[in-house]
Amino acid sequence: MYLTISEAADYLGITEKEVRQLIFQQRIRAIHDGDNYLINKDQFNEHFKQIERYKQQVQEFLSEPIPEDIDVKDED
């Protein structure tokens, strides 16, 4: 499924200007049909999967209990 720049901006939660910049920086693949840029929606699937994995890792880290303080006396 192809999206226009405005639809892609809504889908990604960023502005249209940022989407255009990402296209010109070649960080988003797009097809120019003469009038509009068309962006394939499937290219964002891996990005969203990575974000979900990162959120899960952060949640696991935050839910890990804090180890008890070992009161070690240095006898130098």
Q: Can you walk through the features of this model?
A:
The chain is mainly alpha-helical. It has one domain (2-63): Molybdopterin biosynthesis moea protein, domain 2. Helix content is 47%, strand content 11%. It has helices at 5-12, 16-24, 45-63; strands spanning 2-3, 31-32, 37-40. The protein has a 3-stranded antiparallel β-sheet. Strand 2 (31-32) and strand 3 (37-40) form a beta hairpin. The radius of gyration is 22 Å and the shape is rod-shaped. The N and C termini lie far apart (69 Å). The model has no long low-confidence stretch (mean pLDDT 88).
CATH architecture: Alpha-Beta Complex
Query: How many β-strands, per DSSP?
Result: 3
Q: What share of the residues does DSSP label as strand, in percent?
A: 5-15%
The level of helicity is 40-55%
Q: How many discrete structural domains?
A: 1
Give helix and strand order, one letter per element, not per position: EHHEEH
Poorly predicted ranges: none
Can you tell me the CATH topology?
A: Molybdopterin biosynthesis moea protein, domain 2
CATH class: Alpha Beta
General shape: rod-shaped
Oligomer: single chain
Biggest sheet features: 3 strands, antiparallel
Structural class: mainly alpha
> Nearest-angstrom radius of gyration?
22 Å
Alpha plus pi helix count: 3
Separation of the first and last Cα atoms: 69 Å
